[in-house]
Design a protein that fits this description.
Elements lengths: L8 E5 L4 H11 L3 E7 L18 H6 L4 E5 L4 H14 L1 E4 L9 H5 L6 E6 L9 H5 L23 H24 L3 E6 H11 L2 H8 L14 E6 L5 E6 L2 H11 L2 H11 L6 H6 L1 H13 L3 H10 L3 E4 L3 H7 L10 E6 L3 E6 L25 H8 L4 H9 L3 E2 L3
Parallel strand pairs: 1-2, 1-4, 2-3, 4-5, 5-6
Antiparallel strand pairs: 3-12, 7-8, 8-9, 10-11
């Protein structure tokens, strides 16, 4: 396996999605990531979905490839030990409040070139989560159908996930800066900034500021080009997108609609070579294509669209994705069947990055640690404590070993 980050050490103090997903990204690429939690687990250790035995599939899913330390984070000796662990690693990723023993200046006393990425909700340090950020950045107002004006929060915590990848990038960028200059630094990263930057990247802010526009919700229609959902004869839905000339030609040819589309273009005085014109006429174009989909099963639709190079995808539930999509199986080198302690064997992804090409088979698809699984090893190997010292910590409940 290509492990481009082998030799990079990171300590992670985190909860929920953003920071843990960033740490896991680094771990899957070969970094040694040690996550510390309070004894019994932190705020996210029992988050849904759970197995019948109460094990969090959520926590396992975000912590694969890491080492786990469980300790009493209020204990002064534990704080000293963890501070020393951070110093020896040289990189610290956290979304815990950066005050007291976790303040950058305090941690830096042990290592002047310390790199620390601190994730917050808002730039001023106030609390926020994906759902309270998402509702404030415009997207729920344009998600949903035009005949239902209620805002709809997207169920995917996109800002958390993008924030996690940005946090991982922040560690790597600051580590590279240190390798060139010898300087460590504190890197701030606000979830709100991630979301607002993304809104600006896509032009939505400029559209309001420059054009005075206010985007409306339009169901599953693709803004600015032709794209929409259709219902098949067996009551499945597919999403079809025609942005490029090749995609547009493929859709028309597959559905036998070339003549009807040409007639509509003449009637409306539009040039459908322009994707914007296709968006303007999306309602009428949809009326041309819809009967073709309604007369065919999903399998028939798939065969014809694929044969003509159209761009499309079926709507699926999570269950249907697992059952139907070959990309969600061990046929995809990103996935492997992993035996997760306490859960059993199930499909686990490694890194989407395929070093060596798309057929690279070793991508860090491994189990998540049991809470506290590596407490003893970290205390012994990384911090140099002897058996008697570790035993004393365990006996007084300052650290915990796995059951």
């Amino acid at each position: 396996m290509t492990r481009p980050l082998e030799g990079l050490s990171v300590v992670e103090g985190s909860a929920f999605v953003a920071a843990p997903s960033g740490g896991m990204t680094l771990a899957q690429l070969g970094a040694d990531v040690i996550r510390f939690d309070r004894i019994g687990g932190g705020l996210d250790h029992r988050r849904w979905p759970l197995t019948a035995d109460g094990i969090s599939l959520y926590w396992n899913g975000l912590n694969r490839g890491k080492r786990s330390v469980a300790a009493d984070l209020s204990d002064p000796e534990v704080r000293e030990l963890l501070s020393e662990l951070v110093a020896r690693a040289g990189n610290f990723l956290t979304n815990f409040p950066t005050r007291g023993w976790l303040a950058y200046d305090r941690l830096r006393e042990r290592r002047d070139d310390l790199v620390m990425v601190a994730v917050t909700g808002s730039p001023d340090g106030t609390s926020a989560v994906d759902y309270t950020i998402n509702c404030a950045v415009g997207y729920p107002a344009i998600t949903g159908h035009a005949d239902d004006r209620r805002p709809v929060n997207h169920s995917l915590p996109a800002w958390d996930l993008i924030c996690g990848q940005t946090a991982a990038l922040g560690i790597l960028a600051a580590d590279r800066h240190r390798s060139r200059t010898g300087e460590g630094q504190l890197v701030g990263l606000a979830l709100a900034d991630v979301a607002m930057a993304a809104v600006a990247w896509r032009g939505e802010l400029a559209d309001v500021e420059v054009n005075g526009s206010e985007r409306e919700s339009m169901g599953n229609d693709l803004y600015g080009a032709f794209g929409r959902d259709f219902v098949t004869a067996d009551d499945r839905r597919v999403m079809v997108v025609a942005i490029t000339p090749h995609q547009w030609e493929g859709l028309q040819t597959a559905t036998g609609a070339v003549g009807a589309v040409e007639e509509l273009a003449v009637e409306l005085g539009l040039d459908f070579a322009d994707e914007g014109a296709r968006f303007v006429a999306r309602g009428r174009l949809g009326e041309i294509f819809a009967p073709w989909f309604a007369e065919r099963t999903l399998a028939g639709v798939a065969e014809e669209l694929d044969a003509h190079g159209a761009c499309w995808g079926p709507y699926r539930t999570f269950r249907q994705m697992l059952d139907e999509d070959p990309r969600c199986s061990t046929g995809n080198p990103m996935f492997a069947e992993v035996d997760q302690p306490g859960v059993g064997v199930h499909l686990v992804p490694g890194s989407p990055l395929a070093f060596g090409g798309p057929e690279a088979t070793e991508r860090g698809a491994v189990a998540a640690p049991r809470l506290g699984e590596h407490t003893e090893a970290v205390l012994s190997v990384e911090l140099g404590l002897g058996p008697a010292e570790i035993g004393a910590l365990v006996d007084r409940g300052a650290v915990a070993l796995p059951n």
